[in-house]
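S., here's the first fold you wanted:
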Amino acid sequence: MSVIRPIWEAAKMRNHPAGFRLREVAMMSKAKLLGIALGAVMIFGGASAARASGWGGGCEERIEHERHELDRAIERHGYYSRQANHERRELDRLRDECRYRR
């Protein structure tokens, strides 16, 4: 058996000052890791929640814009025109998309 003990064995001894120092360093590193992990959860968790809540408000505005586009196409090209039919399909697609998101 060697006379020189490894540092971790010395740290296990209760009355050894290096043991208290190593425990202190270990607790500080654990606290830092916990702080970093909590910070990451707050940053990334909050970003997804903000994005998800923003989806509902945009749908009404986009549907209103598509209705306006349909009215404009009807005025310019007629009720049964190719352009009006295209705008109707776009409005239906957008309504389906917004229903799916809710």
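And the second, which I think is the more interesting of the pair:
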Amino acid sequence: MAYLGKGSAYSGGNGYRLFKSYQILNVIDSPNEGVTYCVQYHADNIENFNQFYSKHLHELQAIHNHEFENQFVLFNTLMQTVD
């Protein structure tokens, strides 16, 4: 996932700074053939998420499409940590 790293096309934007962390997960019970991954981004608050969603989401989706054209399905789910 080089596009998330330092000096990459997306890391130069401001959108990634709105998240405190991210993790890449392997989906174990995927109904799809082959290996399936999930990328999870963690924001400190809903304001950071909303700013990313309104100003940077389309750029990140375009990068995913360029890097992995016809190899992925993209959907967004907003979740909250339960303490």
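Why I say that: The chain has one domain: 2-68. Residues 41 and 53 are 12 Å apart (CA to CA).

Talk tomorrow,
H.
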